[in-house]
What does this fold into?
Amino acid sequence: MPGYIVLGKRSRHETMVMPEHHHDHEHGSHLSDTELRVRALESLLVEKDLVNPDTLNELVDTYEHKVGPRNGARVVARSWVDPDYRRRLLDDATAAIDEFAFTGRRGEYMVAVENTPTRHNVVVCTLCSCYPWTVLGLPPVWYKSAPYRSRVVIDPRGVLNEFGVTLAENTEIRVWDSTSETRYLVIPQRPAGTDDWSQDELANLVTRDAMIGVARALTPDALARAEAAS
Amino acid sequence: MNGAHDVGGMHGFGPIDPEVDEPVFHAEWERRCFALSVAMGAYGSWNLDMSRYARETLPPGDYLTTSYYEHWLHGLQRQLVEHDFLSYDEIEQRMRTLQQASDHAET
It folds into this structure.
């Protein structure tokens, strides 16, 4: 990429490129402009007593370890076993999700959309990265990346194929473009062969990708394989 | 407002590349940038739409070639300056001080 240099230790999934003029070569240090700038902001804001480092650590811990797709999985599993809850969830997802009293920042106005044998839902935020933090945690890099944001709205069937979801020709696909106000949770179809499963067991079948709509819920076989592999 | 961020329907961005067992953050500075943005947002000086707009003020070439949390960093810095929490001068000066401390620690 002419005119750009790659800085820092990054995975190929979050390649960090900055215009060359942003980097000060004179120092020859391992600290990138980005790392320095973040440290400078934190040090100044702490010094001015505008943020507390403990609060920052707690925020990181919450979103790294406490809030995540396990929350959404519990919501979906309950909707599979409790028809009244499912109705409430489809009717007013914000209130139905609040019944769980999850930790962390509340989701904005939430909408739950259900997959059926004839309709499949998939969620994107074409402009940025809007995502239901309360039930799914922070979004993965691919969700925030230009390839997904640009393509899922013009070629949803092709994108779903790449994620391993092949739909019948006559299955309707609805693509939901999130905003800062409205966020979506896909309720995947309950897999066959789970009639006698408990709500907690069912939650293990509900993956992050299934709730974004780029995957189906795991089958009992797929879950057994995943558990054997880990 | 349209701009480089308004990518829905555009061609040419290449394949979607999901990472297996992806960590929530990919570097320590991403953790700090995320937490600083959320903590400072709690003051209510700006809302979510203003934050996104601040990120979208990156020049299009930079927007498309920098990472997600670099967008956040740009937006956070801009909001902090516009709302008089910090000035660009003191940020640059603190960066130089931190760099010097880091150089000193290495030698």
